[in-house]
Every structure is written in C-alpha cells, then in structure tokens.
Amino acid sequence: MSTLAFAVVLAFVLDKLFAEPKRFHPLVGFGNYVSRIEVWLNQGENRKMKGVLAVIIAILPWLVVSIILTVMVSGSDFLTLIVSSIILYLAVGWQSLLQHAQQIVTPLKEGNLEQARTYVSWIVSRDTDNLDETQVAKAATESVLENGADAIFAAVFWFFLLGIPGVVLYRCSNTLDAMWGYKNERFLSFGWAAARLDDVLNYIPARLTALSYALLGNTKLAFDCWQRQGHIGKSPNAGPVMASGAGALNVSLGGAASYHNRIEQKPVLGPDEDDFTRASADSIVQACDLVNKTLVMWIVVIMVMSWGISVACS
C-alpha cells in the first residue's frame, strides 16, 4: 500500500477530528497574497496578459516550495506520510462543508427561514434575502454537490496523481478562480487565465465525481440527467456534477436566481417536471450523504489501486 494512499486516509481523519483550522489557515494567507497581486496588476491595458502573469506569480513560488518539500521528505516514508497528510488536510473542506450544510438544515426544519437565509448566504454568491424555503434548500443542495467536487474530490485526485505539488497546484488554482473568476468588468479579462486553469484542472475530477454520484444514487436517472443537461450550464465542469447529482437525488435544481439584484435564469437540472422531488431540508441531508458515500468509495478505490500498483512493481 502506497504512502500517499495512507496519507489520504490520515488527512480525512484529521479533517474529521479538527475540521477546518479557525486561525492561521494557509489559504487565508494565500488569499491576502494574491489580493495584493491583483491590486498591483489589474489596471491599465492588456489585462488578459497581466492576468496570465498574475497567475504565474501567484502559484509558481508555492509550487516550487511544494516540490522542494517533497524532495526533502522523500527519503522517509514516515515524514512523507505526515507532511503529505497535513498538506492534503489543509487543502480539503469535508467537515467544513458538512457543518455549513447542517447549519442550514436545522433552522429550515425548525421553520426559522431568516436564520436559514443567513447561513446559506455564507456558502453561495446569490442574493438570499428573499429566498423561500425551497429556494434556500435548492441553493444549499447545489452548493454541497458542487463543493463536494471542488473542495474534496478534485483535491484528492491531484494529490493522488502528483502528490504534494499536485494538490498545492490545484488548491491555489481553485482559490484564484474563486477570487478572480468573475465575469464582470473588473475580472472579465484579468481573471480569464485563472478561470481557464481551474477549468482544465477540474475537467477530469468533475466527471469522476459525476460518475461517482451516479453510481451511488439513482443511477439511471443520474446518467440520463447528465447526458441531457450536463453540457447546458455556463461552467464546463459544474454542469456534469450538478446534473448527475440532481438525478442521483431525484431533486430539481437550478432555475431562476438573483445575483446582485439581477435575475439570472440558470438551467433547470434534474428529472422531468412531473417526476421530481422539490428541494427541502431533506435534500441537503441527502446531498451530504451522497458526498460521504462518494468519499468512502474514492478512498477504497485509491487503496485498491495503490495495492495493485505496489504488487505490480514488486
């Protein structure tokens, strides 16, 4: 069994025990660092090229450090295990995602819509002040499914493929996309490179996540929704994940949403109108369960693959 496979298990044990660090999280420091880069470069002419330069300046130093760190611990399986598991633990957001989801579920079930709106506003970018119960549940369910792919499974994929440098590259890229990937006047050109890099790095993990959701949920319906709806969203990677997840849960997602007081018509995802289940607090719980089942399946697959590779190489 490879050290990296054990590191994946240990990373999620750490996440289960400690969740997301409340203070001194490296990603907070990285966010402050890239904010200064954006202020420096996002001005004047040629903003697309400046955005490319900004991505390089933002990611390259940490990628180099991760490669050096990998070389430094490579002589010891124990050090590799400890350092790798800590890096992956800091890169994933499993318990944080589940905790945020539960904060929304509890007031929804208690009929406290105002509190549910407040908590859902912490994890989505849409306007939440006027959402009804179904819309709150829909937004939260979508967030759990999509962030399962982004905050958990893509990080695991790149860690298993390239080790510490892989997960550092992915997490930095994904953070840049979250900060610069907006299609507004400020970031449309400057954030182009960050958004495209994130699209490339998420392409395979997103489809593996969509496949996993389908296999562990309503399989026939998930594959049908993925085939019919996975390509119609704005994001090349969120579409398959969300469509497959909606089908797996037999719930209707997407539709009209307000962003900065402007209504945006998002594709409706899930089963046909006559057959779907309306989003509710139970849908959020079911989405969390689907993410948990997917995580277990991925860990089992990684351990089996690692065992097979070690046997083949021995």
List the helices and strands and how they pair.
Blueprint: H1 3-18, H2 26-41, H3 47-73, H4 77-91, H5 94-110, H6 113-120, H7 133-180, H8 192-216, H9 219-229, H10 238-249, E1 253-259, E2 262-269, H11 281-313
Antiparallel strand pairs: 1-2
Per DSSP E runs of 2 or more residues, the count of β-strands stands at 2
Helix content: over 70%
Element-by-element helix/strand order:
HHHHHHHHHHEEH
Strand line-up across the major sheet: 1-2
What is the terminal-to-terminal distance?
11 Å
Name the structural class: mainly alpha
The parts where pLDDT drops under 50 for at least 5 residues are none
Number of domains: 1
Main sheet? Answer: 2 strands, antiparallel
User: Can you tell me the overall shape?
Assistant: globular
The value of Rg in angstroms is 20 Å
Key words describing this protein structure:
314 residues, mainly alpha, globular, cobalamin biosynthesis, Cobalamin biosynthesis protein CobD, Cobalamin_biosynth_CobD/CbiB
Walk me through what this model shows:
InterPro entries: Cobalamin_biosynth_CobD/CbiB (IPR004485). One of its GO terms (molecular function) is ABC-type vitamin B12 transporter activity. This is Cobalamin biosynthesis protein CobD. Belongs to the CobD/CbiB family. The chain has helices at residues 3-18, 26-41, 47-73, 77-91, 94-110, 113-120, 133-180, 192-216, 219-229, 238-249, 281-313; strands at 253-259, 262-269. The chain has 314 residues and is mainly α. The protein has one domain (3-313). The protein has a two-stranded antiparallel sheet. A hairpin with a 2-residue loop joins strand 1 and strand 2. Helix 4 (77-91) packs across helix 7 and helix 7 (133-180) crosses helix 11 (281-313). The longest helix is centred in the middle third of the chain and has 48 residues, at 133-180. The chain is globular, with a radius of gyration of 20 Å. The model has no long low-confidence stretch (mean pLDDT 93).
